[in-house]
Amino acid sequence: MPAVSDFLLLQVDGKKKLLRSKWLRPVSSEELKEGIGVVGQCIVSEDSAYWLSDARLLNTITFVDQQWVVREIAPLIANTNLQKFARIVTADVFNYISFENMVQRIKEEHSVIAELGQFTSEGAATDWLLLHE
Question: Which of 8, 69, 110, 127 could form a disulfide bond with 74, CB atoms 3.0-4.6 angstroms apart?
């Protein structure tokens, strides 16, 4: 995976229309915004239909940063061909629910139709994500 920075790796499989992202460590608010912005631009430029995000090392996204994602990134993704988003997470229930709530707001406010799945293993996430094949 090519490094975007010291905190995020990205890999594109154009044949499968698959974007893989991996957070390498907990990040600051500015780093989170930079990373998510790069991912959003990549989804647009590569016409990705599937996104696999390994967020196990990512800290819980603060409410302020969630609002930023809803306001700034969701409209960008709403106008793409993204169909499924698989997120690999730890077993932290608070993090899981917090992210689910943010995604629900995105779907309501921006008509994003991509399916979301959260998983604790890369194998399960990949299987679900590529189930269409």
Answer: 110
What are the boundaries of each domain within the chain? 8-129
Q: Are 67 and 47 in contact (CB under 8 A)?
A: no
Q: Name the pLDDT band for 127 (thresholds 50, 70, 90).
A: very high
Residue holding tokens 């430029």?
45
Q: Report helix, strand or coil for 26.
A: coil
Integer CA distances (angstroms), 13 to 21, 73, 89, in order: 12, 22, 22
pLDDT number for residue 1? 52
Superfamily of domain 8-129: STAS domain (3.30.750.24)
Nearest of 3, 55, 57, 68 to residue 29 by alpha carbon: 68
